[in-house]
Amino acid sequence: MTQTPAQELQLLRETFADLLRNQVLAESVVAAEAAGLPADAWRALAAGGFPWISIDEDRGGSGGTLAEALALVPLLGRHAVPLPFTETGLLASWLLAGAGLPIEVKGHQTISDAGQHLVVERVDGNRIRISGTLPGVPWGASAASIVAVKETGGRSLVLLLPSEGVQVIRRRSLAGEPRDDVVLDGLVLGSGQYAESHLPDAGRELALRGALCRGLQIAGALERISELTVEYAHVREQFGRPIIRFQAIAHHLARLTEEVALAGTATGVAAEMYAAGSAGTAETIAMAKIIASRSAGTAARLAHQVHGAIGTTREYPLHLFTRRVWSWMDEFGSGAWWSAQLGARITEQDPARHWDIVTLGLRRP
Amino acid sequence: MRTEVRGFLAAEMAALGIDPGLGIGGGYRPEFSRKLAARGWVGMSIPKRYGGHGRSAVERFVVIEELLAAGAPVSAHWIADRQTAPSILAFGTEEQRERFLPGIAAAQTFWSLGMSEPDAGSDLAAVRSAARPVDGGWSLNGTKIWTTNAHLNHYLVVLCRTSQDADRHAGLSQLIVDLHAPGVDVRPIQSLDGTNHFNVVTLTDVFVPDDLVLGQVGDGWRQITTELAHERATPDRFLSTYSLLRSFLEYLADAPELPPSARDAVGTLTARLWAIRQMSLAVARMIDSGQTPATQAALVKDLGTVFEQDTITVLRDYLPGPARSGGTTLFERLMEQAILASPAFTLRGGTSEVLRTMIARQL
């Protein structure tokens, strides 16, 4: 029996969710904060080729479509996956493949969106020398290599930075995930370690794709935050009844539901448009990240308020998700940063064209 | 279709020589409504055999959002088009459909809603207006309040008690009342901005013939809850302040001295509007596929109307001085109106609090 593309996508999503349920247990997410990357979980995901979906097979990827790859990203948030999944595949491998550079399919790779701040000088022949600091690189200390983009002389250079020969200052996100500062002090790269991207303006493309990934991760985590909170409000009793029976609590839950639906819709539409290569995708991703970041803050606040003191502990799982959305909401451009970008773009053009942005969508009726 | 509507509106609004308005409060102009009807943009979802155009909810969505975005004066036909026509179509008799729908689609007859009463606001099931059976029909007594444009419209759909049932949701019915019938008294209520669109309608021994009962006797509660699911998520719930936002962009283009935060604010408001519209569109698609997405619609209305009020709160900080009448720019004029009109946004069609209670009940 042949399946429709929607059914195939759903099947892929279920397979991946099952894998995450078995491999990424709440205990292992907490343990990862002390022990570092959970190697078994990474091996299981890598063995299935999941991180490299949408990267061409002749480039060393797993093949498949961008729509398939993006469909998995909310699940990373929903299961609080403490792995550089989007960093390795959708971001680093995508840039490397687009520049004809080799991708790493055994270990994990990572990405920095701060490549523009690096100073790049030509040494001799094909060699270049790189200096500067890449702040907050996800799993920067343990990654096999770090990928960054530097726009120079009208070209987008994709840099494949080795993990040796760089200084790493270990730091952590609010969720306890590695976000290391990587200091490059005259690191020399030869041919095969950097190349021009086939994408025009690859730095901008990376910012967009990164923002879309973080937005989808937020949307997935918010779903789980909402489920935990509704469940708790049904079970927890005070004054002789479940707290959901109190209107003040019920209204917090309604607002929480609204924010989760808004973030899910915004990031879902942006992902569909991005996968389809629709016109206006850049503005749509900016809007989706603004919404996801805003909703993340509001939803986390409401969820904690409903949970009371238990939600502020390590023993109750809410923190696995709220600490992640607090971290993701500022990564690859905070809501405020994208609002400034979008606001500048809108106010540069004729006010009559504003409505065209408001009505952007995949199937524009 | 979108381009055609836009072109028509640009020409007509210029010919009328009026400022854009704020959503459905944008002005009562029967002639304008008739011109829209002549183009096929009123009663779009009414089947052709009743004088309509047999279009989908999504097609109607496109036209009404263009009307609202332009701030067109749509309030004469709005309720009839949005609410009464779908209701008559769903619950009315064949004779009622043939009798009323062509007039709605042609923008010849305009309708009001007779739901709220002095003692029945959010608690709509507390209505006391009652009809008792008489020879050939019903005799209706009661008072309806907040009836928009009852002083100008032709008909009123009255939610009333037709039996004193112990279950307060049973025993309610909807009756169609001719606003010019004997016993109907319409008195204006002046709104805080000095305009008059609300009224008190007193019904004294009003005779309603049997053939003007809408739907089944005793089925009124189910009928209005279905009706509300359809109206709650439509673009009039998030576009009331679009003309204000649009006028701010024009104002900003001429005021480079405004701080960068003004541009950031435009970015955030645009993103919120875009996302809410996508949710609203999803509801229209669900309606087209035969569903009644009541909870989804409530989510959209709450998000949308709060967004409308936030737009005012955020943008008023960029006024050149205190808001007052006689502003030289469209932004200043619309802001003055919007501040005064804004309290109603989160009240009409179900308060935010009622909506949130409804949403939470499904969790």
Described by strand count, sense and barrel closure, the largest sheet of chain B is: 4 strands, mixed
| CATH class placement of the largest domain in chain A | Mainly Beta
CATH homologous superfamily heading of the largest domain in chain B: Butyryl-CoA Dehydrogenase, subunit A, domain 3
Shape of chain A: globular
Whole-number radius of gyration of chain A?
Answer: 21 Å
CATH architectural arrangement of the largest domain in chain B: Up-down Bundle
Beta strand % of chain A: 15-25%
Q: Can you walk me through this structure?
A:
The complex is a heterodimer of chains A (about 375) and B (about 375). Chain A is of the alpha+beta class and about 375 residues long. Chain A has two domains: about 5-195, Beta Barrel (Butyryl-CoA Dehydrogenase, subunit A, domain 2); about 200-360, Butyryl-CoA Dehydrogenase, subunit A, domain 3 (Up-down Bundle), CATH 1.20.140. Helices cover about 50% and strands about 15% of the residues of chain A. In chain A, the strands form three sheets. A four-stranded mixed β-sheet of chain A has the order 1-4-5-8. In chain A, strands 2-3-7-6 form a four-stranded antiparallel β-sheet, with no helix packed on it. Chain B has about 375 residues and is α+β, with helices and mostly antiparallel strands. Chain B has eleven helices and eight strands. In chain B, strand 2 and strand 3 (about 135-145) form a beta hairpin. In chain B, helix 1 (about 1-15) runs parallel beside helix 3. Chain B is globular, with a radius of gyration of 21 Å. The interface between A and B is large, with 43 and 45 residues.
Keywords, please?
heterodimer; A: 365 residues; alpha+beta; Butyryl-CoA Dehydrogenase, subunit A, domain 2; Butyryl-CoA Dehydrogenase, subunit A, domain 3; 2 domains; four-stranded mixed β-sheet; four-stranded antiparallel β-sheet; globular; B: 363 residues; Butyryl-Coa Dehydrogenase, subunit A, domain 1; 3 domains; 8 strands
